[in-house]
Amino acid sequence: MNFDESAQQRYARQLALPEIGAAGQAKLAAARLLLVGVGGLGSPAGFYLAAAGIGTLGLADGDRLDLSNLQRQIAHTTADVGRLKVESAARTFQALNPAVQIRQHAERLTEVNAGALLRDYDFVIDATDNFESKYLIAAACHAADKPYSHAGILRFFGQTLTVLPGQTACYRCVFADPPPPPTPAVGPLGVVPGVIGTIQAAEAIKFVTGAGKLLTNRLLTFDALTMQFREIAVRRNAACPLCGKIS
Ligand SMILES: [Zn+2]
After folding, report:
1. What is the whole-number distance in angstroms between the Cα of residue 169 and the centre of ligand 1?
2. What is the DSSP string of 20-85?
3. Rounded to an integer, what distance in angstroms lies between the CA atom of residue 193 and that of residue 195?
4. Which architecture, in CATH terms, is 31-233?
5. How many other CB atoms sit within 10 Å of the CB of residue 198?
């Protein structure tokens, strides 16, 4: 693939990375990624994916922006309060990189629409903020055989895991049943989804380009209070409600 002069300039630093190069950049330009949620996790993930030159970026979120979102959802601005988040995020990411094709799905992922929504994408980023959506994404990605990046955030704490369905430990291998929701909902500190969403973008870029080693079979946790990352080895669970009964 030949890149025009402006693309050569824009991506010069990553074209110079041997792990990416022109071949990796062409793969990024051909890739279709779906961000489910354009809030605290989806904002940084979308920024970096757009900046890196992802060909198609799908944004799925049915919510409108609330003033209380802006403490962490940095793809939006104060003037966007009351607007659909997919609209303001699309405008932000498009301004960063006009070459990215952005698709807006102004709807919440449900059991009914999940299959159709995922169909056109190569990789899914779970950037949602509730367990119901996370279990739904895990199930839909398993059914559609779509690789995905899970993330969860609470207060000062975050975690993330990359899943290749049928090959590596899935979200439900690790978390078979949803925990009770924390009451009242507090936090998170805005930088926590900033850190974790950025890691999710890195995983998506690595998946597309084949660079490095994915965060599979390893749950990465981050504690901003102690400023510690930890890695927990996880593996496929034969009793997993989604991908169990390993043959
Ligand atoms: Zn599983």
Report:
1. 5
2. THHHHHHHHHH-EEEEE--STTHHHHHHHHHHHT-SEEEEE--PBP-GGGTTT-TTS-GGGTTSBH
3. 5
4. 3-Layer(aba) Sandwich (3.40)
5. 16
Only one residue has tokens 């890695």, namely 231
Q: Which residues of the chain have pLDDT under 70?
A: 1, 181-184, 246-247
Instruction: Kindly give the distance from the C-alpha atom of residue 242 to the centroid of ligand 1, in angstroms, as a whole number.
Output: 5
Full-model pTM? 0.96
- How many whole angstroms from 194 Cα to the centroid of ligand 1? 27
Residue ranges covered by each domain of the chain: 31-233
Q: What is the pLDDT of residues 128-187, one digit of tens each?
A: 999 999 999 999 999 999 999 999 999 999 999 999 999 999 999 999 887 776 666 788
Query: Which residue from 9, 43, 7 is spatially nearest to 28, judged by alpha carbons?
Result: 7
